[in-house]
Amino acid sequence: MPIKVTRAATILQPDQTRVLLRPFIPGGPQRFAAIIARVMALPEDQVGPLLEGVSEEFSRRHDNIHALFLERFEEVRGHMSGDEELSEQRRMLIGSFFLAEYSLESAALFNPSMVPHPDQTGLAEGAVRFVLSLRATGEGHISSITFRTGIVHGDNSIEILPPKGFLIEPRQIPNPVYKKELFERRLGELGLGGELTLRVMNRLPESFTLTELRVALKAERLNSPEGMKRDDQEASHRIWALARSNYEVQFQPDQELSQRILFPSTPAQRNGIEDARFCYFHDDDGTSLYYATFTAYDGARIVPELLETSDFVRFRFRTLNGPASENKGMAVFPKKIGGRYAMLSRQDDESIYLMYSENIHFWNERQLLLKPVFPWELIKIGNCGSPIETDAGWLVVSHGVGPLRKYCIGAFLLNRDDPSKVIGRLRQPLLKPNPSEREGYVPNVVYSCGAMLHQGQLVIPYGLADHATGFATVSLAEVLAAMEPTKPCGTPGDDCPPIVSGAWVSSSAAPQLPA
User: Fold this and answer.
1) Region 26-53: what's the mean pLDDT?
2) How far apart are CA 380 and CA 398, in angstroms?
3) Backbone dihedral region of 78: left (phi > 0), alpha (psi from -120 to 50 degrees) or beta?
4) Residues 158, 81 share a domain
5) Domain assignment present for 76
6) What is the distance between the alpha carbons of residues 260 and 283, in angstroms, rounded to a whole number?
């Protein structure tokens, strides 16, 4: 009997009016200097009216725009030919020439991930507030992370609160601190264990700041009177790049969540922050925080990275390290298994693997969990977000790619105490593109980066043709009842014992919500 899936009427469409003010780089240093010289040549009596016109046109689209103009001026003033004193109006006008609006969602708003909101106050009985992260894609196919807030009500209806106000990037927290042991370990994995690295590390304490690393690298350059060798120069650049890839940012707490934008800011992320899979993680010591794995893309290479936050105000970006931290589709289990972190992954671009680690930032080993079996997934399979704990086991919403590169959403079940044991999987997909969902940026795709369990209903946000975002609900009991038992290899088999008991169907582990 087919599983009944209910699609919500709510569809989140990309909104081209949501624009972010970002640095505009018109060319190299000579272009900067030429543009500044032209603005400098304007008579003073023209500067005020010109600035007033620009401000009038754009101040309703961006908060505190004059402060942004002045901030941008300070970033480009090094290209000026002289050091003469300028009026504040001229400084603002110069800054305005080196900014541009970026339409964050002009192409797509998709690949959603759903987790309980840190604030669960003021809700009606049976309702839960959630954070929805989305992949916003704009000009140049550059992807960033944007957020919405919503409520799943007691009757399982889904409400998405409208986005608010001006879009804002966070401030990068200056001078982050690094642990020397972990930093050296990562340098070794990158093949940077040579003499220069040893000398630089010997100059640093057990915990060091970005400023201290800069001083240590500069000291090595000064100690080379004839200049650094080319290999040492390259190593120095790569050491610095690794440090800059591990950073923290912070928004103002009074800024609405829907205003907060995580835009690419490192060389590894240059072309996008893609497919963030959020989970609400509960540690053995009783503490909780949110993790999100995502794919950093520089235009040629993909690298999995990790995002950490406790409040969606302050975010820590970390590299994922070790030989098993490669490819796409990594998803953290929401708690440790046997005292170790656990993660799903897909290193071969077609199968699902399971990994364990003592340290969430380092992943060295993997084991095969599932291979493509059914016609709708024979090209490849992967997870659609972090596993969800139920009384029956770890429920994993998955995706499969079949004929004509059609993406469908399915599910499988892992043993609760030993997730290396696949105890059931769906033979047929839960969701496949219907006629109204087929057309978009990438046709014939439904895809999710994280679902949530609520009162026995699985709530699945999903991307439609890599363009917009919809929502579906389905009974957990029906999903579990439709699971086919599997052999040890994870493939269905008639000789496998039943996996669904009455207790499993009637109850599920309630999601742990923030206090």
Assistant:
1) 96
2) 11
3) alpha
4) no
5) yes
6) 27
The two tokens of residue 116 are: 């309980």
Q: Are 203 and 219 in contact (CB under 8 A)?
A: yes
- Is residue 309 pLDDT above 90, yes or no? yes
Q: What is the CATH number of the domain that holds 284?
A: 2.115.10.20
Characterize 367-405 residue by residue with b for buried, 16 or more Cβ atoms within 10 angstroms of its Cβ, and e for exposed.
eebbbbbbebbebbbbbbbbbbbbbbbbbbbbbbbbeee
pLDDT tens digits, one per residue of 210-222: 999 999 999 988 8
Q: State the average pLDDT over residues 264-278.
A: 93
Quick one: which of 101, 97, 99, 98 has its CA closest to 47?
97
Distance of alpha carbon 60 from the chain centroid: 29
The answer on 414 and 314 residing in a single domain is yes
**3-state SS class at 359:** coil
Q: In whole angstroms, give the CA distance from residue 267 to residue 250.
A: 20
Residue 456 lies in a domain: yes
Q: Please, which residues bridge with residue 398 across strands?
A: 383, 410
Task: Tell me the C-alpha distance between 170 and 470, whole Å.
Answer: 28
pLDDT tens, residue by residue, 416-427: 999 999 999 999
What does the alpha-carbon distance between residue 465 and residue 400 come to, in Å, rounded to a whole number?
14
- Reported as a single tens digit per residue, the pLDDT across 320-357 is 998 999 888 999 999 999 999 999 999 999 999 999 99
- Single-letter code of the amino acid located at 302: I
369 in a structural domain: yes
Per-residue pLDDT tens digits for 426-463: 999 999 999 999 999 999 999 999 999 999 999 999 99
* Residues whose CB is less than 8 angstroms from the CB of residue 188 and which lie 6 or more positions away in sequence, other chains included: none
Q: Note the pLDDT of residue 512.
A: 58
Q: Are residues 278 and 374 in the same domain?
A: yes
**C-alpha–C-alpha distance, residues 214 and 416, integer Å:** 47
